[in-house]
Amino acid sequence: MLLLTAGSIFSGWLTSRTGRYKVLAIVGLAVMTGGMVLLGGMGVDTTKWITVRNMMIVGVGLGLVMPLYTLIVQNAVPQQMMGVATASTQFFRSIGGTVGSAVFGSIMLSQYRTYFNSHVPAEVAQAPNAGQILGAFSNPLQLSSIMNQLQQEFAKFPNGLQVLTTLLDNVKQSLVQSLSSVFLIGAVLVAISFAANFFLPEVALRKSFASAEQTEAVAGAEGAYATGKAASEQPVPAFSIEGDD
Length: 245
Description:
This protein has 245 residues and is mostly helical. The chain has one domain (2-204): Growth Hormone, Chain: A. Helix content is 73%, strand content 0%. It has helices at residues 2-18, 22-40, 48-76, 82-118, 122-125, 130-135, 147-154, 160-196, 212-232. The N and C termini lie far apart (94 Å).
């Protein structure tokens, strides 16, 4: 989040200085695609610092492109439609974030359960209460809150804690597989956006919020003022009157 904010500030500053945004959009999406691929390649042994590094790369790339598309839309529509265009951009961005989170969350849980169930130890899968045991592992996000209860339950059986350790290792591997799928799908989508930005038209950015008619009127007034000022600054020619001598 810190680098996303820093990237957004830098992107806005550079765009305002140069008036160009297409290169920034392409570079930002390229960096973000690389970060998503790195996130998709993480494993159980990945250290925290490598995870943070990969997240920072994604944050920089996302920060570079975040302010650009609102600016592009605002400059691509007439002055009187700017409010509607800006609101529509924010609306669809919110919808995309909500729907995207739900879809990717569903993909992650589906991949997790498929991998986890296919790697359950045989002694657990054939146990009479296998459904009840495995039900506790169906949602990995809830495991931390029920870990003490699981340890107490598994301690009642011979080698129960060893079986619990095996199941928790399976949880880690299943999470790695499911998260890798999510990140790689995200990388493909960002790569498609990266390719699409090569066809993005680069319109001239507005210098002010004035309408075209107002801008022309101001320019005409400034031109008339400059012409009048230049005429007033011309030296007055000297005249002499000769007599009849």
